[in-house]
């Protein structure tokens, strides 16, 4: 990757004391932003953590010195430096006077999107998700350069805060041949998005920080007009986007559907369920967890359906190894069932707890689990199965006799209370709901769970026979705390 930060142009706006410290700092290449608050010491935030830059505290004169050397602040309290990608944000008091500045270092990184080059060439709309400061703006800046220069498409950037193409009427070279439309007021961003489609015939529109319902609606409108859309939004994952009522239209929206009794039995769900309203405006979603580790959803509609169905979600993970090699692997997302059904008033409190606990359960589709996680089940693997059930001594003895009659010779039974030895849990739904400590242990250790409706000998034997057929040996650990003598 080729990184161009133009750090010297940012340093020039500071007083001599801070300027000299930053220039001589051994880790100035890892500088992310500089924090200046009145009455406090100046602080530099690096990729490895924060560090004070001086002993002297910041005064009003220091802030005035800086604000005279940058552009005027817009209605979102952001300003920039001419012909650079640096951003300066201010904090004001109740009287509107500036009492703090956040100076973020803007970098143009060439080669950062090699990890998703195939997705850009597909022509599908992309949604980039990530927490603030993870590098979403840097990514879409490089996307605009690749789409306009290398793939040779007509690209228009809706640049609300001038972060993508810099704070100048002449766009920064980091966007390539793409054109940039500036937005005078942040609340008008959705109007400029529609105007870009109507007036300038783009093949691709790039929007940074989609954050309101009107912008989400405009994004859907653009996608339905046949224009490829690349946008960013704050959120760690698709799961967090589902919980965001403001941006839910980006992924098709959610509606409550009441099923018939027959359909509910066929699906093995409740009668009231959540379903996606329509097709999402974005076909592909990219979760940026770090600079070199991304999670890809190549079919957003399918992923949303799986999340709403409370099932395990297969995800694609891409990472950069040794700066040039790209590693792609697949896994089952273990946190797909954390959707907050309670906010939609669909379930009772008890069912709400149960659905949140399903995140540790095995997938309904076993073949899908094997496809994306081949190590999930091995014929030569020895399984230690922990029974968290209300059993007594007589039931354990009957269970031993039943196993012997069915010739389940691969099962060894021990009685203990040590759950650390187990890698699979067998319990009932009621036991999970009523035991908070057990729920915390399962979540922390990320154990797989089999459930039975009731602690009868028949249900217990059928379940363990199914498990025993899949592994070379099963060590059955019976919870001694549950035994009543």
Question: What can you see in these coordinates?
Answer:
The structure is a single chain. With 485 residues, the chain is α/β, with parallel strands linked by helices. It folds into 3 domains: 2-106, 2-Layer Sandwich (Beta-Lactamase), CATH 3.30.450.90; 110-358, P-loop containing nucleotide triphosphate hydrolases (Rossmann fold, 3-Layer(aba) Sandwich), CATH 3.40.50.300; 377-482, no CATH class. The protein has helices at residues 7-11, 16-24, 60-67, 117-121, 136-150, 189-200, 213-224, 238-242, 261-267, 300-308, 349-357, 366-372, 393-405, 429-434, 436-445, 457-468; strands spanning 2-4, 31-37, 43-46, 49-52, 78-80, 87-92, 98-104, 108-110, 126-130, 155-159, 179-182, 204-207, 228-234, 254-258, 272-276, 284-290, 293-297, 313-321, 325-333, 382-388, 411-416, 424-428, 448-452, 473-479. The strands form 5 sheets. A 9-stranded mixed sheet has the order 11-10-12-13-9-16-17-18-19, sandwiched between helices. Strands 4-3-2-7-6-5 form a 6-stranded antiparallel sheet, with no helix packed on it.
Give the strand order, joined by hyphens, for the main sheet: 11-10-12-13-9-16-17-18-19
β-strand number = 24
Helical proportion, percent range: 25-40%
Residue-averaged pLDDT = 79
Structural class: alpha/beta
Q: How many strands, which pairing sense, and closed or not: the largest β-sheet?
A: 9 strands, mixed
Strand content is 25-35%
Distinct helical segment count: 16
GO molecular function, one term: ATP binding
Domain AAA+ ATPase: 122-278
Protein name: Ycf45
Keywords: ATP-binding, Chloroplast, Nucleotide-binding, Plastid
